[in-house]
Amino acid sequence: MSNYEAVTIERRDGVAIVSFNRPDALNSFNAAQRRDILLAAREVNNDDSIRVVVLAGAGRGFGAGADLTELPMDDPTWRVDDQLNLEYKPVMLEIYRAPKPWISAVQGPAAGVSSAFAMVCDLTVMADNAYIYQAFTAISLVPDGGATWHLVRTIGRKRAYEIIATGEKLGAEKCLEWGLCNRVVPRDELMPSTLAWAEELAAKAPLSLRHAKQAVIEASEQDLGHTISREADLQYLCLESEDAKEGTLAFLEKRAPIWKGR
Fold this sequence. Notes:
Strand content: 15-25%
Helix content: 40-55%
Oligomer: single chain
Structural class: alpha/beta
């Protein structure tokens, strides 16, 4: 287990569990947690033995957003846009562009910028007590960390603006209905269910998972013609790989394939 101040990493075969670890503060983001989550994300993304990453929160909640007690409002040199661009943006893109799937396991609140961490993952499992909360209008702020990007693309402009303006807490079942999560499970089954899914994915062809993730991301941002051509490029990379040859041979020999990720 890696040694970070505000984040933990646990490895289970091909799965890593990266957890926010400030449970007494509902995993709200202070400087240490902002620093540690970027370093931890880079560590697991660069580890080829890790096939799938689970992002979770220690204690009773996924995260309560920024730690408002830490904001240096009396420092005339401090700017929140610097913090968002230089500290939050790099880790959001590290997860979004990761060469492996990330699954967020959400219990209790995923509020403020913590909701952006839940949404930036490729897949999401929510406990039945979990909710996504854009709390910003209550303190005269706006969503950040990419939250508006995810909300608009997932639930549409009008619904996105509604939940931001009203501050509605979106419960797990509504998140499932609206496509903000993939599965809802009882709270005590959150980690076992998420880990079982992660282990299932870790047994899949890693190149296929990697390039399919890349294709889906690009498809959400490009037109049809570009998408078809990009799929063709990625398919060529997959078909020329050792794993594609192994997959075909294993299918013919009626055995489980042994993936090498190359």
